[in-house]
Amino acid sequence: MLAYLLRRLMLVIPTFFVIISINFFIIQVAPGGPVDQYIAQQQGIGDINLLKDRLSGENADEVVSNTKTDGYQGAGGLTDEELLLIKQRFGFDEPLLVRYGIMLKDYMTFNFGDSLFRGSSVVELIVDRLPVSITLGLWSMLIVYLISIPLGIKKALTNQTKFDYYSTLVLLVTSAIPSFILAILLIVLFAGGSYWDWFPLRGLVSNNFDELSTFAQIKDYFWHITLPVIAMVLTSFAGLTMLTKNLFLEEISRQYVLTARAKGLTESAILYKHIFRNAMLLITSGLPAAVVSIFFGSSLIIEIIFSLDGLGLLFYETTIQRDYPVIFSTLFVFTLLGLILGIISDFMYAVIDPRIDFEAK
What pLDDT does 111 receive? Predict the structure, then answer.
């Protein structure tokens, strides 16, 4: 097992290199890059000295005098000198392959650089947004797994009973409601929209959070995350619950269960010592994808509706702005996290079922 994990770790490097390279070239050839974005914001400048001040280029005069331009889509009414300063500001005075080499060198040293439009380093932006994504992702995943797996087991054990039928109906109804519709409904009902003003509408904590006692801070924290978490988890139970039920039904019908019963094992021992271990393998294999999806994907709309500045919203905003350092850095984090979680998933396979041997020929 150790040798297998070491080989998987070694494969992370080339896999990561290929993924990052593909993302780099796809994003680079996409229209409307950061130069176009900046030009759109600065169309009314017209003063080369003011532009130099805004770009804060120490060698701005040298760039203007020594660099040629072939014209740039979106340049609008800017002069060649102004356009050259902008290209220098965003590093587009260098060829594509040179920029690619610089990016790889920076990422090898974990140097993510600064945002092109937000006036702070990429690391600061990610660290500032991380608590929101961790909060939504952690609580959502915890609640979904703690409810869906026991519910799926219960449905398998009471298959084709009234409990099974009614619970399936509830799951289908909740899964059919889009999360953003549910979020809006919760705001209208419980956040002062039209009925009750029980929960806050925006933010992860109150403005006076630092002045509160420890107990009051905990209460304020859960007060703020209640509606966003409900909006995320209520539509997420069906998939995992039905998957758990079907896996357990499949395992219950296998020959080894009949053999265990014939040996006199109790139903509880059969369920949790044999069936549970085998049925949970597929659920475990999907855990890495579920973590990445819940933490950084599913929360995007919820972050927008509840005004929560998380990584999902950051990635969306910077993609629209073509803020390349932030885009590539978040892709770096997502990719690395996904690869590492894949290795952890394999390790959990062996923990749940020691019969699995990745070294077997």
Answer: 81
Question: What is the Cα–Cα distance from 44 to 24, expressed in whole angstroms?
Answer: 31
Domain assignment present for 42: yes
Residues 216-248: pLDDT tens digits?
888 888 888 888 888 888 888 888 899 889 888
Angle subtended at Cα 339 by Cα 335 and Cα 340, rounded to the nearest 5 degrees: 115
Q: 191 lies in a domain? A: yes
Look up the pTM and report it: 0.70
What residues contact 283, with CB distance under 8 A and at least 6 apart? 149, 240, 243, 244, 247
Where a domain ends, among 77, 111, 145?
A: 111
Q: Which domain holds residue 64?
A: 33-111
Helices (H), the chain: 2-29, 34-41, 48-55, 60-66, 80-89, 96-108, 122-157, 162-175, 179-190, 214-233, 237-252, 255-262, 267-269, 276-285, 287-296, 299-305, 311-321, 324-352
- Predicted confidence (pLDDT) per residue in 179-194, tens digit: 888 888 888 888 876 6
Looking at the predicted structure, is the pLDDT value of residue 60 above 50? no
Burial 131-150 (b: 16+ CB within 10 A, else e): ebbebbbebbbebbbeebbe
CB-based contact 247:282 (threshold 8 Å): yes
Q: At what angle do helices 214-233 and 179-190 cross, to 10 degrees?
A: 130
List Cβ neighbours of 192 (8 Å cut-off, separation of 6 or more). 201
For the residues 86-93, what does the mean pLDDT come to? 65
Q: Give the CB-side neighbour count of residue 52, counting CA atoms within 13 A.
A: 11
| Backbone angles phi and psi of 139, in degrees to 5 | -65, -40
CA–CA dist 35, 116 (Å, integer): 10
Q: What is the pLDDT of residues 100-132, one digit of tens each?
A: 888 888 888 888 878 877 778 888 888 888 888
The residue among 111, 137, 160 that closes a domain is: 111
